[in-house]
From TrEMBL, chains A, B:
<comment type="subunit">
    <text>Homodimer.</text>
</comment>
<dbReference type="InterPro" id="IPR036282">
    <property type="entry name" value="Glutathione-S-Trfase_C_sf"/>
</dbReference>
<dbReference type="GO" id="GO:0006749">
    <property type="term" value="P:glutathione metabolic process"/>
</dbReference>
<feature type="domain" description="GST N-terminal">
    <location>
        <begin position="1"/>
        <end position="78"/>
    </location>
</feature>
<dbReference type="GO" id="GO:0004364">
    <property type="term" value="F:glutathione transferase activity"/>
</dbReference>
<dbReference type="InterPro" id="IPR040079">
    <property type="entry name" value="Glutathione_S-Trfase"/>
</dbReference>
<feature type="domain" description="GST C-terminal">
    <location>
        <begin position="83"/>
        <end position="221"/>
    </location>
</feature>
<protein>
    <submittedName>
        <fullName>Glutathione S-transferase family protein</fullName>
    </submittedName>
</protein>
<dbReference type="InterPro" id="IPR004045">
    <property type="entry name" value="Glutathione_S-Trfase_N"/>
</dbReference>
<dbReference type="Pfam" id="PF13417">
    <property type="entry name" value="GST_N_3"/>
</dbReference>
<dbReference type="InterPro" id="IPR010987">
    <property type="entry name" value="Glutathione-S-Trfase_C-like"/>
</dbReference>
<dbReference type="Pfam" id="PF14497">
    <property type="entry name" value="GST_C_3"/>
</dbReference>
<dbReference type="InterPro" id="IPR004046">
    <property type="entry name" value="GST_C"/>
</dbReference>
<dbReference type="InterPro" id="IPR036249">
    <property type="entry name" value="Thioredoxin-like_sf"/>
</dbReference>
<keyword id="KW-0808">Transferase</keyword>
Length: 221, 221
């Protein structure tokens, strides 16, 4: 059985979970308190990060590398197009969300409001939270602009870029930090992703002390 | 003519320059002061980052996505193996250097000591510099451990993982922050990479106000 060491509100773990589920690969989830790393955990990944996917005897780390590996070894259904330019667009957007969006939005909101409390690192930094709340608007507008021209974020088919973006947004939605009224096409796009069977386990996640809002698991939000 | 908007001591730009040069793709270099972004620059890349590769009419951003695109469109000479597990190892190590190594070492040393001065952001934070100087030892030992088992970082052939690591180390070597006496096999590996024709333009770079040490461009360092 495959095993994924993860943390429920990590967008990088969610991206791997969505990719596994889309490809119908079953996985046992093991929650990892990566900020209190055990010797075993550091042996599995000296980078001290989640996700870690144990598959056969291999320990796979780094979410984008894991997803590319799953795509190459389990190509059905495809989450990457065939054309190099379209593939570039997917990878560029994955990097946009995992790097820029993560630094400006996910870190400033999810990490400040949830992870810090769970990790007993004190109160959220209000400047960071304010910055994150400002920056998410700009990112939602960028997504709206992309979706004005395309059915999905990277083109006319659903790809890893959509799951990467949705992984981040779902963590933010858990703490009610996404204004779904800002753009109809972003809301419609998220509704399509959210209704996929692969999304269901994410919507069932609960972080103790942080109950999600009622709209979080509602497909008609 | 292809054009690369870059900053000389950016490891991400160096990685793309090395990949282009290995694949014998000529490129015109345009230095971009990305911390003083012009409207034109932000139009080329709304993320406000370098490198940006203009190729035909396309504007390509995000260094790993660019290198994967170049690999797919110009497969000779290959910088990625064919086997999915070996490809995973390359991508995992690229992420290791571009994420973990960058955060712990390159940012703490190159950005604190050089970029901050160039950008007129004040003096280096001595705590960050001290941390970077500590962490690089751990990373050099990790590389030494990898190279004990393999000829190159990701396996027995030279790949993008080697160029990614060398891009970071070359920036650090520009400010004499690599202790080449720490491990013979890391030094031998770097000597092999450094002597490649693709590396020569990097060794000719100069940042005004920061002359490189004499060993920097010396192939027999």
């Amino acid at each position: 059985m495959n095993r994924l060491y993860h943390f429920p509100l990590s967008p990088f773990c969610r991206k791997v979970r969505l990719t596994l589920a889309e490809k119908k690969l079953e996985v046992e989830l093991v929650e990892e308190r990566y900020w209190e790393p055990s010797a075993d955990f550091l042996r599995r990944n000296p980078a001290g990060k989640v996700p870690i996917l144990k598959m056969d005897s291999k320990m796979l780390t780094e979410s984008q590398a894991i997803c590319e590996y799953l795509e190459e070894t389990h190509p059905t259904p495809p989450l990457m197009p065939r054309d190099p330019e379209e593939r570039f667009e997917v990878r560029k957007l994955c990097a946009w969300f995992d790097d820029k969006f993560h630094k400006e939005v996910t870190s400033n909101l999810v990490y400040e409001r949830v992870n810090k409390k769970v990790m007993k690192l004190g109160y959220p930094d209000s400047k960071a939270v304010k910055l994150g709340a400002q920056r998410i608007k700009y990112h939602l507008d960028y997504m709206a602009w992309l979706l004005d021209q395309r059915r999905w974020l990277a083109g006319d088919v659903m790809t890893l870029a959509d799951f990467t973006a949705a992984a981040h947004l779902s963590c933010l939605d858990y703490i009610s930090d996404v204004d779904w009224n800002r753009s109809t096409n972003v809301k419609d796009w998220y509704a399509k992703i959210k209704s996929r069977p692969s999304f269901r386990p994410l919507l069932a996640d609960q972080v103790p002390g942080f109950p999600p809002p009622s709209h979080y698991a509602d497909l008609d939000f």
